[in-house]
Hints:
Mean pLDDT: 86
Structural class: alpha/beta
Helix content: 55-70%
Shape: elongated
Number of helices: 20
Keywords: Membrane, Transmembrane, Transmembrane helix
Subcellular location: Membrane
InterPro entries: Membrane-Transporter-like, SLC26A/SulP_dom, STAS_dom, STAS_dom_sf
Strand order of the largest sheet: 5-6-7-8-9
Low-confidence stretches: 488-507
Protein name: Sodium-independent anion transporter
Number of domains: 2
Main location: membrane
Amino acid sequence: MLFSLIHKHLSVNPKNDILSGLTVALALVPEAVAFALLAGVSPLVGLYAAFTIGLVTSIVGGRPGMISGATGAIAVVIGTLVAMHGVEYLFAAVILTGIFQIAFGLFKLGKFIRLVPHPVFLGFVNGIAMVIFIGQIKQFKIDGAWITGEPLLTMLGIIAATMAIIQFLPRFTKAVPEILVAVIAGSLAVIWLGLDTRTVGDIASIKGGFPAFHIPDVAFNWQTLQIIFPYALTMALVGLIESLLTLNLVDDLTQTSGQPNRESIGQGVANTVTGLFGGMGGCAMVGQSIINVKSGGRGRLSGIVASVALLLFILYLSEYIEMIPVAVLIGVMFMVVIGTFEWCTLRLFGKIPALDIVTGISVAVITVLTDNLALAVIVGVILSALSFAWESASKIYIEQSQNDKGDNVYKVSGTLFFASKEHFQELFTPQADTDDVYIDFGNARALDHSAIQAIDKLAMRYKRVGKTLHLQHLSAECRLLLKTAKNLVEVNVLEDPTYHVADDKLA
């Protein structure tokens, strides 16, 4: 009965999900500790966030197999808040973040992540890969000084061995996740050989108790809201953008479809819960999600196991987890970088529009320089929109013919909107036209108010020279907008096509 329940709701392959979950749990420890230190809070605040967020999103989120927890994107946002107002204000901001994200999902706004253009997605993925890589390079420093000599050679040897195991073990067996084998084998080898290298325990102690329910110790008034509101809103947007783009990435890797709106709600519930249990907030984790998928984790059970295992590490197994060499985890993350980076983008130069390449590079560079994924994606979407507008503006044209009465008929093809309105005007010469002119919009779309103003302006041009303009085959949306020109044009409503807007079922 229990196995049937697990198989139906949590996992189609419990063995793979359990093993991949254990693998992810090992990789979560140093990440959570590092992000907590980056945010200026105790390592346990990051670990508690990884546990609570990972557990909640695995149960109620919209993307089985995706791993969530404390992330660098959130850590960058909250550092100033913690430094200026303290950790209690952080917990309050995290709860408000969750409320924002729940509202985002309830209003079914998750579908809009599908509007992110592919060049932006490629830039996001490549930027994340470079951020992970740079994060690992920083591990070659101790107290601000680069590691050199024998310690450096030891680290490089351990990293190379770890990467070799992950790369070549699947050629011999796929019974166990290669990453889990690499972590265990690398750790045991370092212990048996007595190699002097840094371990997780050298970064911070991860020993702690069960996270306790805790209402933030702040004044619940307007002043507090003013302090936490901008941070909460930023965290909500950054978290949702990273989570929903990671959802798309996992969709591509697994050839399945997640549910953006449900994931938004799941992220919101998770952040609300973690704020009440002393966590720093977070979102989906690209690196850990890829580790999970590559290790065979596909179901909700993998995320649940990772979270529970992480809690067990904190409660009972901290001394053993602290023995894991940092170099082993660097090797794991280097392989994640190799698997995350979209190497196909290097072959796209000269094969796709230059503006698409510029957009992808811009997103990647902004991601690396600012660690602000929301800013990078927003800039990318704006660049893509401008690129689309620029391209579409020149693709509106007309075909001229005459009807039985000898009147000119112009069949418009393309899209009439703010960027193409001037070109649209240049296509017509009222002074040289017939007294009655018909414009057929059957193959065209008028998208915005600028389009309506362009039609109105054209009608006025014909009116000034004593001629009449007639419009045919306008869409229903365009007819609703045509208020400014309603006394100047004649609309044929009998053959107007009907256009439908995508509904929420996709989300």
